[in-house]
Write a structure and sequence with these properties.
85 residues; 0% strand; mainly alpha; 85% helix
Length: 85
């Protein structure tokens, strides 16, 4: 018999992922306006969003390899603590 998917741990992880992505994607539409309010140029606000997007895309394979080496549970706990701070 296969293991159940919809366990309490599954719903906790779904809630955590939803919260992290919600907070991250609230930054995208508002960040350029905050940068402009702080005196930045439109170029610097575009540069910020570009760096944010490309850094997440380029760090994904490195993070995946690190999780394979160290263990996904330890990486998840470490990144969760880093996000809390």
């Amino acid at each position: 018999m296969s293991e159940r998917l919809f366990t309490p741990r599954f719903f906790v992880m779904c809630g955590f992922s939803f919260t992290v992505f919600l907070s991250a994607f609230q930054l995208f539409p508002t960040a350029p306006f905050h940068i402009l309010d702080l005196g930045g140029s439109t170029f610097s606000s575009g540069l910020f969003l570009g760096f944010l997007t490309y850094s997440s895309a380029f760090s994904a394979p490195l993070t995946g390899a690190y999780a394979d080496r160290v263990g996904s549970r330890r990486v998840l706990i470490g990144t969760s603590l880093a996000l809390v701070v």
